[in-house]
Amino acid sequence: MRRKLAAGNWKMNGTAASLSEVEALAKAHPAPKSEVLICPPATLVAQMAWKAKGGPVRVGGQDCHAKVSGAHTGDISAAMLKDAGASHVILGHSERRADHGETDAEVRAKAEAALAAGLVAVICLGETEAERDAGKTLGIIGSQLAGSVPEGAAAANTVIAYEPVWAIGTGRTPTLEQISEVHDFLRAELAKRFADSDGFRLLYGGSVKPSNAAEIFATSNVDGALVGGASLKAADFGAILAALDAA
Ligand code: PGA
């Protein structure tokens, strides 16, 4: 049985005042069935982990460097995130692939670092609109999966998030058939490499909101969501969490 996961990605949003949203979420959902994760900007990881201690919300980073330490100004290592109280780290988000030119090989190296530090890696994959229109979706997803997920991955330390680039922050979502096609494909591809492929959580991400969460969570091989905009407010993210618990 896979434990469902509601993951929030705050991206470059939030200051110390936003920590009240985490307290409100924990108060409204003290014992959810699903696992709950919020990945705030790096500046808030330690404070949020402190505030969330003992409650249902786990805290993650949004990126890490592939090395443990060294001369890499502005970067943060997986061990540092762990030290700050993080349990997870998002890797290979399409905004990092686009804004920072991250390749599959770099994402894989970061994932190896995350696993070595004892973090759960949430590895993101997704096609652009042009790739979907050209009928290349499964080919792109397959090669990103093969290139980004390290050999050391296992159900206990790795989560895969399918996030079509054209659905992120746009209010547009794929059809449920398109989501299940990709998620079923991911499950089958994982089975070729990993003995415990059935245990890997597969998240859908891209314009998930309270109004569409229930139908997305009823889709085959969807084990939760990676939520951007709608994770910033406890009321919205709480509604998504409630839909996941009910699925
Ligand atoms: P969105 O972002 O929910 O705002 O579309 C999702 C993501 O980028 O993880």
What is the top-level CATH class?
Alpha Beta
Sheet with the most strands, sense and barrel status: 8 strands, parallel, barrel
Low-confidence stretches: none
The termini sit apart by 14 Å
CATH superfamily: Aldolase class I
The order of strands across the largest sheet is 1-2-3-4-5-6-7-8
H-E order: EHEHEHEHHEHHEHEHEH
* Rg (C-alpha, Å): 17 Å
CATH topology group: TIM Barrel
What does this structure look like?
There is one protein chain. The protein has 10 helices and 8 strands. Strand 7, helix 9 (210-217) and strand 8 form a beta-alpha-beta unit. It has a single domain, classed as Alpha-Beta Barrel (TIM Barrel). It has 247 residues and is of the alpha/beta class. Residues 9, 163, 168-169, 205-208, 226-230 line the site of 2-phosphoglycolic acid.
Mind sketching the topology for me?
Layout: E1 5-9, H1 19-28, E2 35-39, H2 45-52, E3 57-61, H3 78-84, E4 88-91, H4 94-99, H5 104-116, E5 120-125, H6 129-133, H7 137-148, E6 158-162, H8 176-193, E7 201-205, H9 210-217, E8 224-227, H10 234-246
Parallel strand pairs: 1-2, 1-8, 2-3, 3-4, 4-5, 5-6, 6-7, 7-8
Bound molecules: 2-phosphoglycolic acid (PGA).
Concise summary:
The chain is an alpha/beta fold. It has helices at residues 19-28, 45-52, 78-84, 94-99, 104-116, 129-133, 137-148, 176-193, 210-217, 234-246; strands at residues 5-9, 35-39, 57-61, 88-91, 120-125, 158-162, 201-205, 224-227.
List keywords for this structure.
single chain; 247 residues; alpha/beta; TIM Barrel; eight-stranded parallel barrel; 8 strands; globular; binds 2-phosphoglycolic acid
